[in-house]
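Protein Record: Sequence and Backbone Structure Tokens
======================================================
Tokens: labelled as protein backbone structure tokens, with as many entries as the chain has residues.
Task: work out the structure tokens from the sequence, keeping to the layout shown below.
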Amino acid sequence: MSTHCINDLAAEIPLSPARGGKQLWARGRCPSRVAPRRGGEHRGGVDLASLAASASAEGFLEHGLDGVCDEPRPGVPRKITDADVERVIVRTPEERPKDVTHWSTRSMAAATGMAQSTVSRIWWASALAPHRSQTFKLSTDPFSIDKARDVVGLCLDPPEKALVLCVHEKSQIQALDRSQPVLPMMPGVPERRSHDYVRAGTTTLFAALEVATGKVIGSQHRRHHASEFKKWLLAHPRFHLHSTPTSASWINLVERWFAELTQKKLKRGVHQSVQALERDIRAWLADWNEQPRPFIWTETADETLDKVAAYCHRISDSGH
């Protein structure tokens, strides 16, 4: 609503002693005229009862738009100060409770004298989650930066008329059969599996992910040797090998495809033999290639390395 329209509306609203001299106004369209409602009928204007009750016309006439702001509301004064919030935020990552490895909402509430719900809200607003933990490993390869730039550069900007394949192996895939039948999911009850299992054997999957299309070439072998792979490379000189840094196989995009295979097929699968396991892998691979989905890099290697460096700088006592 324009200022001119608001001024016109305010000028045409008659103030009355109803509701202590307060009259409601609207944030909607500017009506040509406004009149009070009597007997449930509109008389030559807009029904004031249907207008938004956000402020009084008196405040608007006296102070303009600043006069329609809400005044302080009654209620219990704030008990948790900014210093209390800061104390929880600082204490959570920098201190540990005496008897356990990490804080919980209850232990932090007992240590600070706050309510558990208050601690939970502070953690949520500050993105603190002491109950969560993840694994990591930094590469010790002396050429890790050069290798990372090389591999990521091939994915971001592959050479013209070149086929870029991300190749790796997923070894020791176990054919596991549960000791008891799996209990199916029901409303309110998740699927349940026994914690122990019978292992029928293992297989190894060699996979080559085509970066441009997302298609995967896969081959399974019960046994393999590094010498076999070297012989294959010597027999195919058109292929040029680009190595990922040591302990940094996550840079290889085919590892992301292995994660899809593990989460969607292998983790909850039941296989009574290696042959059954290999059939399921081949079937899943065929289904994937019917509608392949490429994995796309969104940042350069230097951007990723800068984030790692910034994180290590923040934890200056980490030793990295």
